[in-house]
Amino acid sequence: MKKSCLLLITAGMLFSCAPKKELVEVPAEIYPYDLKVEVDREFMTLAWKTHGSGLKSGYNIYISTEPLAAKYPGPFLPEDIKPFNPVNFHGDTNPDDGITYYKAEHLEEGVKYYISVRVVNTDRTLSKPTNEAIAVLGTRSEFELAFRYRSDNDGYSFAADKSVRADAVDNDVYYYTRDGADYLASPDRLNGFLRNSRFRILPLKGDFEYIRNHVNRSKDEPADDRVSIKKDDWILVRTADNTYALLHVLSFSGTGEQRTVTLFLAYSSLKNEILF
After folding, report:
1. Which backbone phi and psi does 3 adopt, to 5 degrees?
2. Is 8 helix (H, G, I), strand (E, B) or coil?
3. Which of 172, 230, 178 minimizes the C-alpha distance to 199?
4. Which among 28, 125, 152, 195 is most buried, taking Cβ atoms within 10 Å?
5. Which CATH number fits domain 31-135: 3.20.20.450, 2.102.10.10, 3.40.50.1970, 2.60.40.10?
């Protein structure tokens, strides 16, 4: 009996003297995600979130004419691929909102860009990229159209983003009413030498973000030289230059030949492709 007790005590002593394993805390990976891009005629505004809260040197922004994130989904890039920002971007001035913003300027109109962001770690290594956004410069504005031939703002040039006359050579659209219905029409209906625009009412409802993410699923090209419109309609327009515009009917005002329509315009300077 005494011998067995000694064995138990010895085993217990051996167990208690074994070295304890220390827990090593692995730093959380820091990487950007949920990249969104808003465009205008002269710049793009990037917005993204960042996972993790450890130390980082900043961010690299990649804007190229070829996809990068899909080709290099990991934390490595060839040395010859340089970021759009020549100086390390440390972040915006309001980090507490959880979103980082970056304004990209000096880009070209009519060019499809692939955009992604990576964290630059303190040892100068990179994180994995965000989702890769695709964007092209283009107008975002609101304008009012008067009844045709009743004002100098009875037409609108999408590319120039300005009001023009309905019979101007750079006009893309004019407005009129007939038998109680409201219409948008192509300038070549007024004169065969004017610009040829084609329209299609989209079978979609919602805000601009929703519409631009779903309009590409529509296979039907705009084909009508005029369309009857109602409040909240979204209209896809193909211009004489084979660029595209989205129009949203915001409101109507007045009656008869004093009636006007207010429209939201999203215009893409990219030819032969529907991308907003």
Report:
1. -65, -45
2. helix
3. 172
4. 195
5. 2.60.40.10
Residue 100 forms beta bridges with which residues? Answer: 48
- Amino acid in position 86: P
Instruction: Tell me whether residue 240 is exposed, middle or buried, using C-beta atoms within 10 angstroms of its C-beta: 0 to 12, 13 to 18, 19 or more.
Output: middle
Q: So what's the pLDDT on residue 26?
A: 43
Task: Give the amino acid at 84.
Answer: F
- Does the structure show a pLDDT above 90 at 249? yes
Mean pLDDT of all residues in the chain? Answer: 89
- pLDDT, residue 20, reads 57
Tally of CB atoms within 10 A around 235: 20
Ranges of each domain in the chain: 31-135, 140-268
**CA 232 – CA 170 distance, rounded (Å):** 26
Q: Per the structure block, which two tokens stand in for 107?
A: 């880009």
Asked if pLDDT for residue 6 goes beyond 50, the answer is: no
Strand partners, 153: none
* Closest alpha carbon to 276 in 39, 35, 34: 39
The whole-angstrom separation of Cα 130 and Cα 47 is 11
- Which range has the worst mean pLDDT, 15-24, 43-52, 167-176? 15-24
